[in-house]
Each structure stands twice: as structure tokens, then as C-alpha cells.
Amino acid sequence: MAARILLVEDEPTIGAAVADRLTAHGHEVVRAWDGPGGVAAFEEHRPDLVVLDVMLPGFDGHEVCRRIQAVRPVPVLMLTARDDEADVLVGLAVGADDYLTKPFRMRELVARVSALLRRVDRAAELAASTTPSVRSWDGLRIDTGARRVWVDDAEVHLTPTEFDLLVCLAAAPGDVLSRERLLAEVWGWNDASGTRTVDSHIKGLRAKIGGDRVRTVHGVGYALEVGAPR
Ligand code: CA
Fold first, then answer.
1. Which of the chain's termini has less CB crowding within 10 Å, N or C?
2. List of residues 6+ apart from 48 with CB closer than 8 A
3. Which of 125, 141, 166 is the last residue of a domain?
């Protein structure tokens, strides 16, 4: 599916290679070269997805991500310069959905972009086909059509990934879903190499909806803790 993608990357060689490859796959690519330019381009062009370098002039990719997610939830793929877990955790905490460590293969980038776009499409289809779209348990209310969530009547703002994770868990309240299954259903990945990604996003989800609402089953996965529907 063709999408409008905002690419924020200050390194000319990598930026040109990424833009060329995404364009060759039918996407429209809008470019920005620094933090403030990235936020401005996001507001001007309303992209479907953002590919965001972490190390940028002005302010960094984490700050860009924080600011654009506050405007409108959008899938974000982060590009990190090193395989630094702290960097990745910060990225996920500010609302990135996925990350790639440089150097990466262009094929891998295209695969990740396609997976993120498929998820957004599938979520929209699911929202259109699911009735009723509002469900609630114990003060937790999910509107799958509008993609909104409330805890005790206060709205909480989830990233697209956190929302999809919650909806996936809420499809079978109380049931334990393995990390591999969540990875396959939410991210569209079929290998188990990214199970730590699931843990990080669960951490973000817990921070927003309340830690005791998501139960960890060590070595297996996660379950949404719910009482009787009300
Ligand atoms: Ca950079």
C-alpha cells in the first residue's frame, strides 16, 4: 500500500538511500533534516508514518517523537546509531513503534515499514467491523472505533502500538497471550527475536493504564486483568 512517509535524517547518504528505496516501493517521501524541521514537516504534510533518526541537529529524534505523538498518534520507526538498549527504551517510552540499528539493510527497512503500515490498515478494518466498539471493565473503557481509552473517566493517550497491544489483550480478557503471539498479531512478525520489544511496550502500557491491569506470567506472556464487565 502506498503511504506518505516523513523521513527525518540528517546524514545525506543514508537519507537519500532510504528515500530512494521507499519511493521505489510506491511511497511518497517527505524529507526533513533536523528536529524542528521534522516537527514542522509533520504538521504540514500529515504523514501516515515517520522514519526518524535519533541523532539530529536542533533537538533529537526522541524529542521529535514526543512532540509529534502529542499532536496525533502515528506509527514511528526509529533509526538508532548503536545497539544501545537505553536508547531503544527511551525511544519506545516516547512513542516509537519499532526501531532499526544502523547499519541496516534496505530490505529490512522496507519490511519494517510495510509491517507498520499493514498494522494501521488492519486496525482500521478491525475498528470498522467491530461492534459494539466500546467496552469497559473496572473503570477501563476502550473505544476501538475511535481508538480512545479512558481509565476512571480520565482519557489516557496511548501510542498506536500500545493501543493495538491493549486491544489484542482485551479480545480475550483474562487469557494469557504469549509474547510470540503478541509479536505476530500486533507487529506482524513471525519470529521470536523481538520479544523484548513486547516487554518494553507492555511497560509503557502499564504506566498509562495502571500496572495491576496487565498480569505478567513469567516465561509465558501477558494477560489483561479484568473483573466483571460493567
Ligand atoms: Ca543523525
1. C
2. 3, 4, 5, 74, 75, 117, 120
3. 125
User: What is the edge-to-edge ordering of all strands in the sheet holding 76-80?
Assistant: 28-32, 4-8, 49-53, 76-80, 98-101
The string of pLDDT tens digits covering residues 94-134 is: 778 888 888 999 999 999 999 888 887 776 676 666 556 88
Q: Is residue 76 part of a domain?
A: yes
Range of the domain at 30: 4-125
Distance 8 CA to ligand 1 centre (A): 9
What's the whole-model pTM score?
A: 0.71
Band of the pLDDT at 207, cuts 50, 70, 90? Answer: very high
Please say whether the beta carbons of 162 and 205 come within 8 A: yes
Which neighbouring-strand residues pair with 28? 4
As to burial, measured by CB atoms within 10 angstroms (0-12 exposed, 13-18 middle, 19+ buried), residue 91 is buried
Q: If you measure from the C-alpha of residue 84 to the centroid of ligand 1, how many angstroms do you get, rounded to a whole number?
A: 15
Closest CA to 187 of 213, 161, 166, 211: 161
Say how far apart CA 26 and CA 190 lie, in whole Å: 25
Q: Using the mean position of ligand 1's atoms as its centre, give its distance from the Cα of residue 216 in Å.
A: 36
Cα 33 to averaged position of ligand 1 atoms, centre (Å): 9
83 band by pLDDT with thresholds 50, 70 and 90: low
